[in-house]
Design goal:
The complex is a heterodimer of chains A (about 400) and B (about 300). By secondary structure, chain A is mainly α. Chain A contains 17 helices and no strands. Chain A folds into two domains: about 35 residues, no CATH class; about 375 residues, Formate dehydrogenase/DMSO reductase fold. The mean pLDDT of chain A is about 90. Chain B is an alpha+beta fold and about 300 residues long. Chain B has nine helices and nine strands. Classes of the chains: A mainly alpha (about 400), B alpha+beta (about 300).
Chain lengths: ~400, ~300
């Protein structure tokens, strides 16, 4: 009797699960559609990575990481946290461009940028929970005010900004669910949320750099500078712009069905972003030089670390800056995209250099991440990509929902 | 959204006030507690008996240190279960010197300023102590310490940061720290820091040529409770000699003064930009409509 009722209930609302979750397919069709080579790879990563993540909480950090008394921070901080958050900077960069600076042409890439930022932050927080020795005590940050700590600023900004991103993300979620009243409320709140997103991101992207201010004897002089927080903020903008270009290139390739029938000139947007990228990247290059001058660190350029520093600031800052400038000036979209890929790599390289490679450079024993740390990081990225795809296939992220098209710009 | 002149002054006043408050709170740790308890370590008097290691282990319920002095053949560091170690070095003339390493109990400690939840804390009495119940295990204190003192229990599922507490509990009862109580050679002197500084300098001045003319800890990291005088390079005795003279919190306080400005200046600035872009859109819209009318007319 009960099952019959449930069946009746399901029959009464067959559309929701079928249309919204299963993409209009039956369960069997849906499962079959999921059997793709890409999914097989993703599944293989999760099958290995998730148990390692669980094992870390049972056995402790020592059993799963290569962390030591001289290397208290490793890949989970250097990559998952430092890099993940920087690459999520597209959310506030494009949000401000569209909502506050009124460049409405960039509206089509605003939602994917915000979604990437949101998922990036969620993954960074999961990585952080894995890295914290006593993750259950994370709530202590709400009740104890270590206001002299840059990490306190980071903690609060992560909390606040993840909430802001969640709220920004509710706009497409409500469109997907068809909740018009809540949707119009959140749409109106979007301006305010964007202001908050710029404010929190400014503080917190730079505070991630401030974390290293108190270690002048541990961070290599070529990377240590009293202005490191400015460098982190500027390079986060580079990361944001570059990520948005790379991501719109990939998503418009991967999600044909979503963007079909739209008249969005991605190439034109890419060139516009490239121009911005060139400007910010040139500024960043000269700031990095300024850092060397200010730290009287010229002598270190002739060492091995100096060579590695030059690889970072010439190979991955000056070269992509020139590519951005040349590409956007001559309308060469491919060149701008190549520059964007290098821009993303540039920020990954910088964050890993500051937190791992050039950190404790004068210690006899160096940190090399363990296999488990690498696998967990790959697993978190995979979960992020899967979540992005799941959402994009269902919600109005890359396309407009026709019933909500009015009021969109 | 319209900000009148009065409103503007209000925002400016709040900003200035917040910035002033921030710099005032950042200035506090330097002024206070410069004359707490301290220990003077005279490495020329230490005989390397390691009684301090044993007393420390007993007081803190840690495993007893290795019995054989052979352990001193290699340079040792403190560890999660070892809060103090004695290291050995030979002078050029073959004389042997020893130095004990433990938490320096900085006057303005980097570790305590780095802790986002105040699990690591500088007490008003002087010792820098740790409360595991608040700690979330970020290990930023380990990054912050210029002496590499805090150690972590990586092998536990419920890890703690471990380091010397300066026997804060014993001091509260009027007792000396356990290590200083058992030292038989007079290498460790417990007392007020200001008096120990005078004692240290007196020893240096009254024994010309004997000591290196430097009190390690007087200015290192802005000053520490533990002070060392020596006749060998302390680097050889496993103490970090690259520690800056500025106190660690002051390296960060400038950057931490920024948030009040960002929080008060960004919203009005960004809303201004928004109002500007709205106005531009409206003007463009009007211009287009006028254009249409002209054509029709």
């Amino acid at each position: 009797m009960a099952s019959a009722q449930a069946g009746a209930a399901l029959a009464a609302h067959p559309s929701f699960v079928r249309e919204k979750i299963l993409l209009g397919m039956s369960v069997r069709e849906y499962v079959r559609s999921c059997c793709t080579p890409a999914n097989a790879i993703a599944a293989a990563i999760l099958v290995v990575g998730v148990p390692i993540l669980v094992y870390r909480f049972i056995a402790g950090l020592g059993a799963t990481t290569a962390l030591s008394q001289t290397a208290p921070w490793g890949l989970w901080i250097g990559f998952d946290m430092m890099t993940g958050i920087a690459l999520a900077a597209g959310g506030f960069t494009i949000g401000a461009t569209v909502q506050l600076f009124g460049l409405k042409a960039y509206h089509p890439i605003e939602r994917p940028a915000i979604l990437t930022a949101f998922l990036g932050y969620v993954m960074a927080v999961i990585g952080l929970l894995a890295d914290l020795g006593r993750p259950w005590n994370i709530v202590m940050a709400i009740f104890n005010y270590g206001t002299a700590s840059a990490l306190f600023e980071v903690a609060w900004c992560v909390m606040c900004y993840t909430t802001v991103l969640l709220l920004e993300f509710t706009v497409p979620v409500f469109e997907w669910l068809g909740w018009k009243k809540l949707h119009s409320v959140m749409r109106k709140a979007l301006i305010g949320l964007t202001v908050l997103s710029v404010m929190f991101s400014t503080m917190h992207q730079s505070a991630l750099g401030s974390l290293f201010l108190l270690a002048p004897t541990k961070l290599h002089p070529l990377w240590y500078t009293p202005y490191i927080f400015v460098f982190f903020f500027i390079s986060a903008i580079i990361a944001g712009i570059s990520m948005v270009i790379v991501e719109s290139m990939l998503s418009h390739r991967a999600f044909h069905a979503q963007v079909a029938g739209q008249h969005v000139d991605v190439d034109k947007l890419t060139l516009g972003l490239g121009k911005a990228g060139a400007l910010v990247m040139f500024a960043y290059f000269f700031l990095k030089l300024q850092g060397v001058i200010d730290g009287h660190a010229w002598g270190y350029l002739a060492t091995g670390y100096g060579a590695w520093f030059l690889v970072e600031i010439v190979g991955f800052v000056l070269v992509p800056a020139l590519l951005y400038a040349y590409g956007s000036r001559n309308g060469n979209v491919k060149l701008v995209r190549a520059a964007a890929v290098m821009g993303v790599l540039s920020i990954i390289l910088n964050r890993l250099n500051v937190s791992i490679v050039a950190f404790n450079w004068n210690q006899p024993v160096r940190y090399v991440p363990s296999a488990s740390e690498v696998i967990v990081s790959i697993t978190l990225v995979t979960i992020g990509v899967l979540a992005f795809r799941w959402i994009v296939n269902r919600m109005p992220i890359l396309r407009e929902d026709p019933s909500f098209a009015e009021g969109q710009h | 959204m319209r900000i009148g002149r009065r409103g503007f002054f209000k925002i400016a006043a709040v900003t200035a006030g917040a910035a002033g408050a921030a710099s005032a709170s950042a200035a506090l740790p330097h002024a206070e507690g410069t004359d707490g308890p301290g220990v003077l370590v005279d490495t020329t008097l230490c005989v390397g008996c390691r009684a301090c290691e044993a007393a420390c282990a007993e007081k803190n319920a840690l495993p007893a240190p290795p019995a054989s002095d052979d352990v001193m053949r290699e340079r040792r560091d403190t560890a999660p279960q070892v809060f103090t170690v004695v290291n050995r070095a030979e002078k050029d003339d073959g004389t042997v010197r020893f130095a004990k390493k433990q938490c320096m109990h900085c006057i303005a400690p980097g570790c305590a300023s780095a802790c986002p939840v105040r699990a690591m804390n500088k007490t008003a009495e002087g010792p820098v102590v740790y409360d595991a119940s608040k700690c979330m295990g970020c290990r930023y204190c380990m990054i912050a310490c210029p002496f590499d003192v805090p150690k972590y229990e990586y092998d536990s599922w419920k890890p703690r940061v471990r380091k010397c507490s300066f026997c804060a509990d014993r001091q509260a009862k009027g007792l000396k720290p356990a290590c200083t109580e058992v030292c038989p050679s007079g290498a460790l002197t417990f007392g007020r820091r200001s008096e120990l500084l005078e004692l240290a300098k007196t020893r240096i001045y009254t024994n010309p040529g004997k000591y290196v003319s430097h009190v390690y800890g007087e200015h290192e990291a802005g000053g520490t409770s533990w002070l060392y005088i020596t006749d060998v390079d302390l680097e050889k005795l496993a103490l970090r000699t690259d520690v800056p003279e500025r106190d660690i919190p002051s390296l960060v306080s400038g950057a931490l003064g920024a948030p009040p400005f960002v929080m008060t200046l960004w919203p009005p600035l960004l809303m201004g930009l928004y109002a500007f872009s709205r106005r531009r859109d409206t003007v463009e819209g009007d211009a287009q409509e006028n254009g249409k009318e002209d054509r029709h007319g």
